[in-house]
Amino acid sequence: MSRITVLAIACAAASPAAAQDSAVRSAADAFGERVGIEQIGLYNEGQVRGFDLNASGAYRIEDAYFSRAAPLNDPVLAGVGVRVGVNAARLAYPAPSGVVNYRLREPGPRNGFTIGAGLRDYGTPTIEFNGSWKDEADRFSLAGGAVWRPIARWGAGTEGEAVDVGIVGRWRISETQTLRAFATTYDRHYDGDFAFHSADGVLPPDAQERRNYSPEWARVEATSANLGALYNGRFNGWSVDLSAFRSVFDLGRSDFTLIETRADGSATATAMIVPAKTNTSDSAEARLSRVFEVGAFSHLLSASVRGRKSEVELASTLFVPLGALTLDTVVAPSSEPVWSGTRGLDVVEQVTGSVGYGLVWADRLQVRLGAHRTRYEKTVDTLSGARTRGVDQTTLYNASAVWSVTSRTALFASWVTGLEESGVAPQTATNRDEVLAPVEAEQYEVGVRHAVTSGLTFIGALFEVSKPTTGFRADGSFAFVGEVAHRGVEGSLAGRLDDKTSIVLGAVAFQPEVTGPLVEAGVVGERAAGISSVVANASVERQLGAGWSVDAQLTYSGDRWADTRNTFKTPAQVQVNLGARRRFELQGRPATLRVLASNITGADGYWGSPSGLLWPITPPTVRAMLTIGFGG
Questions:
Q1: pLDDT at 97
Q2: Which domain range does residue 548 map to?
Q3: pTM here?
């Protein structure tokens, strides 16, 4: 038994244990749900339907517009859900590819706190604190926590330390007005990042498990911080929603090592050194709405203004050759370099005004329409010292309908357009540092939702998401060169089979097609790189006797093209996780023991990525945490 676990048991001389939440029982569908460090479903916070959400910026906090420089971390979160299909049809401000919604913590039914201790992945000792408080009138409340990993270990073999803290406050100003505020920070440092790239267009031999291929002096030092406030008020039939957020990603150091591999396992390494940089993003939204009842019809009228300002510090990269190695060895010792170079700044300011209309006819029909006029301005102080600027103004639209054919079956359809960033031309282009205009993405979708039983729901959909794509032209310039479209089908079956069994089953299959002059010329393949076009996920949790429950998760990810020319692939992967949870009393206090074994079949190899980098698949690991409650 570890010293951390012994410490947790010793603290139990006094303890209600807040039961550790289950992602399986929290999920409304199979499209993506995260509770704490447990993630299930087809999609996640960074990728939906094969597209990178960091470009679309489709993030919300309690449905309020959020432009993030860094994601929210666990101490302030009740959970994170990916909304697509029918669960995104009612959103006031939807986005192509779906929306990620962060849910803030609420106080528990009784005041109290929990202490947890044990091991996270790869033997990482962890101490967690979580708690909540509210006054007798439930006007004021606090909820939050902290996670300390004094020796943090990651699957790639890197090691460091991490501290994660956050708090959420709520003030019920009156029966019709509520104000919430939160603040959270996540600080970590570890010994450098690395990835692989094929120099000869062949998948290399497997890397050594948990071997750090970075030089001894490599470091990553980063701090993420988010804070914000949300206000909701209702006045004579009107609803007012106000929100403001600040998101910061402070990178003190970010050494990255690129390993250029060959089929025989030989390689060369290059370190990429970038100085300290800070990214900040401020976002705010004001929304006014009212519902009018006219006979059997309900009409929703809404108007909103949302804006953001994002600043990304730029810096040139110092390339440091580290010499030859093999995948069975490590890089040779070298002296630590000192960065020298140039700096710049990337600033985006965007303001969007929206009007919306919604119609509900009894329990039969729901319609949502929206129009959004947006002004997007990007200014870049380039690394060469020049300033470039681009302004784009456009009108975006969304329309959706949900028709309840019967009390158990509904059909839905939606159409959404959205604006996404394209960045600037890279240093290797003849038009380097040129600001590229944002692109308009478009999504069409039709589907069905059917209540198989009172506790089990099926959702199926056909979708198409498309947008322009960038690349190098024949003259060496970097610009828009074609179109990328993902057309596919997805399905979800989620809920309770009975009082003791919960399931989440999902699958998606789509065709990621790239078209344009570069494809016709054979420079780029017609399939997007780094994307599994078939993904399936099955999760089940079963309640047993004596406070025990067991759970299992199986994930299949199809093969991926490993380069943009479509010359070689990373193979399909199957991963299996098994877990158990027990709720019991320890020294008269409620406690929870959670054990989870990940990748128990030992899947190995590499993940292909859209950038062309190869990332080693993390090896099997086991987590074990004991949580004990106090108070209440």
A1: 81
A2: 3-631
A3: 0.91
